[in-house]
Specification:
3 domains; Alpha-Beta Plaits; cell membrane; alpha+beta; 544 residues; 5-stranded antiparallel β-sheet; LSM_dom_sf; 12% strand; 55% helix
């Protein structure tokens, strides 16, 4: 009897030693490999796979290990052991809460991970606690009920798939089409409500309506894909099938997200464009294409990196390389960076608007466009100047476009032999003309006899035109100048020009060449009144 007992003790010891020898929990790779390897059909030993579950033993640990394997299979999470670390002291440097921890699928299954406890690696307590919840999400309650009611012929295989799986797949396709149609209708209505809530106006722009419809389309497809992703694991296809199906779903979701965000950018920019068109500031109109290009670039870049992640590319390495390369690129393109900063400064300070007449350094002209790198200014002779925004932001800018009025200062030169009475009458007449001019401020002008020039008596005329437009200013000058010339002709005033006069005191039988002036005050008043009345009739006030 003692020999028999000794035999069983030795047998158990040997069996336990062999089992322990086959189970490797020394590093993340070994632990995950042990779990997956001993749940394969040809190497099925669930009691060994259960040793990777921390804190549980026996049947409970086996159930958890099997469920965990089914969760990974149902989600199509294929484990590439070549990417799992073999280091027993692997340190997760990404920033997780524990030092010795490895997460195989940080994006799709962050709750499933292994960690080092004492000297071995196990599936963590958090993972074990979350297995039942994750299993219920992947395989809802109705899966077991459907399995129990499937008849025997439903388990017959066609092209490697059971009949009930093919039937359920067809039903899933039909349900997905119905979900898509219903969600598309609802999504468009929701987008309309959101647009009304933001702008407080109903949609009247056909382009905005079209963009909203195009935006509702990928959103509906995205929700339909989520529906397929939630139901498809219940069909219990193999890991290989699930792997490719979920890869396709994830790629499609990424593409749709990119499309949605691009359309969303277009909708926002269209709404912003309508808002800017209602403002007097034209600089914010120029901001629309710049913001559109910037946001579009951000969406495309993030979508590109997301797509790389789906194909197993380590984007952290790419970002690190891009950072180093970006630093070198930035050093080589300092002017571009400075121009971008200058562009931001211009849009923040708003020293001018589109259409303003400005002087910046040696360049004078109308601002036509503020670009991402430079500003385009068109001079009076239609020449186009491209000024880098980095330099323009540092220049002293004289913005004529923000003046309240356009100032005009000139000097009227009349002959030296003009009598004082006639000078006074001429100055008075010019003042009266300015007072009735509809395009000149009548409360801020100066007309005075200010000095003696080389060839003329100088009368300064300083006025302010109401219109800021250059063309309107020139037309107003034309009317003013023409009326002053008529006034001078009516009074007998001659304008001077550079000349030299030889005076001969005695010249037989010859009369003097000096003009004779009429200094009758009544004639002055009549002439001035007639000129002013004629001008008033030809140029009535604009508010009359």
């Amino acid at each position: 009897m003692k020999k028999i007992l000794l035999f069983f003790v030795l047998l158990a010891t040997i069996t336990n030693a062999q089992q322990s020898a086959n189970v490797d929990l020394s590093n993340p790779n070994a632990t995950i490999y042990t779990h997956i390897y001993y749940l394969q059909n040809d190497t099925y030993q669930p009691q060994k796979a259960a040793q990777t579950i921390y804190g549980l033993e026996g049947d409970e640990a086996i159930k958890k290990a099997i469920k965990l394997k089914r969760i990974l299979d149902g989600k199509g999470l294929y484990i590439d052991f070549s990417k799992i670390p073999n280091n027993p002291n692997f340190n997760d440097s990404i920033g997780y809460s524990k030092l010795f921890k490895y997460v195989p699928f940080p994006q799709r299954m962050p709750k499933i991970y292994v960690e080092k406890i004492d000297k071995n690696w196990y599936y963590s307590s958090e993972t074990v606690a979350a297995i039942d919840i994750l299993y219920s999400d992947v395989y809802p309650w109705y899966v077991e009920k459907l399995q129990s009611v499937v008849p025997d012929y439903g388990h017959k295989k066609i092209f490697g798939c059971e009949v009930w799986q093919i039937t359920a797949l067809l039903l899933l396709v039909i349900l997905t089409i119905l979900v898509y149609w219903l969600v598309k209708k609802i999504t468009y209505k929701v987008l309309e409500r959101i647009q009304y809530y933001i702008t407080k106006t109903t949609i009247t722009n056909i382009e905005v309506k079209t963009v909203l419809r195009k935006l509702a389309h990928p959103i509906s497809l995205l929700i339909s894909l989520k529906f397929i992703g939630a139901i498809f694991p219940s069909l219990q296809f193999s890991l290989e099938v699930n792997k490719w199906v979920f890869l396709g779903i994830n790629i499609a979701e990424t593409v749709f997200w990119i499309f949605i965000l691009l359309k969303l950018v277009k909708v926002i920019m269209q709404i912003y464009k309508e808002v800017t068109e209602k403002t007097d500031n034209k600089l914010d109109d120029q901001l629309v294409p710049i913001l559109n290009n910037l946001l579009t670039g951000i969406v495309v870049i993030f979508g590109f990196f997301k797509m790389l992640q789906l194909f197993g590319v380590d984007t952290t390495t790419i970002l690190a390389g891009a950072t180093i390369g970006g630093l070198a690129f930035a050093l080589a393109s300092q002017d571009t960076v400075k121009n971008f900063i200058g562009t931001v400064a211009i849009f923040l300070d708003k020293p001018f608007h589109i259409g303003d007449w400005i002087s910046a350094g040696e360049v004078t002209g109308t601002v036509e466009e503020v670009g991402f790198r430079s500003t385009r200014i068109r001079a009076a002779d239609t020449t186009v100047f491209q000024i880098p925004n980095s330099k323009l932001s540092e220049m002293v800018i004289n913005n004529s476009g923000v003046r309240s009025f356009r100032r005009y200062n000139t000097t009227l030169g009349i002959r030296y032999d003009t009598p004082p009475e006639l000078i006074e009458a001429f100055v008075k007449g010019v003042r009266e003309i300015i007072k009735v001019h509809p395009e000149i401020r009548e409360d801020a002008f100066v007309v005075e006899f200010t000095g003696f020039g080389d060839s003329a008596l100088q009368i300064m005329m300083n006025v302010f035109f109401k219109s800021l437009a250059w063309n309107d200013e020139q037309a107003s000058k034309h009317k003013l100048h023409l009326t002053i010339v008529r006034l001078a002709a009516a009074l007998g005033v001659d304008f001077a020009f550079p000349s030299s006069t030889v005076m001969i005191e005695q010249f037989p039988d010859k009369s003097s060449l000096a003009p004779k002036y009429n200094t009758n005050q009544d004639n002055f008043e009549k002439a001035i009144q007639q000129i002013v009345d004629n001008f008033s009739k030809e140029n009535p006030p604009k508010n009359s």
